[in-house]
Amino acid sequence: MNEKDTFVSIKRLSSDEGYYASVFKKIEKITSVLSYIVSHINKTQKDSVHAKRVQDKSLIVHDTALESLTLTHEDAGTGLVELQHRLVSLESTLRVAQAAGVMSDDVLQLVVEQIDSVQRYINNHYTKNNGYSLDIAATALPPVSGGSNPSGQSNSTKKTTPAARRKRVQIPAGDISSDAYLVYSQMTDRAERIKTVLEAKPQATIKDIAEVITDVSEKTIQRELNSLIEKGQVVREGERRWSKYSIKK
Question: What is the pTM of this model?
Fold first, then answer.
């Protein structure tokens, strides 16, 4: 046996650009935002209990995501199930906190949308054969306007074949998922993150926002804020470096 034959190339998720950007980095951002929100929750006894639970669940998700980077592509199908369970647990804890009045509806919706996008990406790219059938989901969702089934066959006749399981399901209008989410997020993800910060801390300065959203410059944040102001979603008080921003009620 030649010496070169003893070396095996193993690709781990840490070198998978799609996973790193659409799963790990998104979870990192979710954790940062929740940490910021928790730090501004009123510290009554009831609120402190919910805040600690949210913080603990969030850190567990982050640690699990960090560990997942060492998984190989061959192990990802089963290895990422634990991460998905942790995300479900975090979302449930957030909903309980919202029901208790500790977290606002808007903040919950924004964070849950990000969690859902991570779950969808994992399902569509790694664990879809271990979970629900995409063909079943397709029959339950309304078709895209003008869409058609090019083969003319029913889903029930396709789901038994391997090729059908790999087929991408048509995405209904308004359903931000899979590759459609990746395209959409390039336009709105940063704006939604800024709005999440402003929900947690009204009258925040650009520096306040930059302390949470650390992967872009203050000039980029300023441009996003100007766009949100033009859309009527954010209001500004003060001028220049003394400006403070809030969600328009």
Answer: 0.53
